[in-house]
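Usage

Read records sequentially. Each one opens with the input sequence:
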Amino acid sequence: MSAIFVTDNLVDIVYPESDGKPMAENTLQYEWIVMIKGGLDAVLPNDFVAGDLLWYPVEGKPKITQAPDVMVAIGRPKGHRRSYLQWQEGHIAPQVVFEILSPGNTASEMTKKELFYNEHGVEEYYLYDPEKNDLFGWIRSEKGLTAIPGIDTWTSPRLSIRFERTPETLMIFRPDGRRFETFAELEARAEAEHQRAEAEAQRAQQALSQIEQERLITQRFKQKLLELGVDPETV
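and closes with the structure output:
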């Protein structure tokens, strides 16, 4: 599908809503895209976060476009969009973008993306290769996007999320210290929490039952004393 707009000189301009490319080339890349997008949605409950959405920075020029694997537009409300038309978004460019490298990405393709993000106002750009466990980052300076030193232990100025690359993988931490997790990890943790809550409820119920049993024993004992003519309060 495409978005069609009519300009003042009545020329139809079509802004395609798909570039015809898949969101991901393999399950590993897809898992990382979904995890980062979901984690950022949780961190930024009031700001727009999207995955694989075409971004058009210049009105009237539909050929100038890019679809970051994940992008963040702080100051723009959440909601569904067919594409990100910057002039309809308060002229706010996405401040942070993420790309997850796949075997099909070429060096020239990634260079073009970096140049695009540099030209159109991205403040932070992160590139991760999950197969090689390589992490790269760029941050805007007076000279444009420049490489981030010490990216393996870096905290995003815009998002306050922390990157930590170990010899095995990349971990991303929320501002509260919790780690970004896959759906499977979230489900496993939720199930563990559910079982823990059920165990605590069972222990509480057993404690209540024990208290009730002791109360009944005490009540029967007092009743027996009364039947024998003995005042329970004197015992």
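Summary fields computed downstream for this record:
- Helices lie at 27-43, 107-119, 183-227.
- The mean pLDDT is 88.
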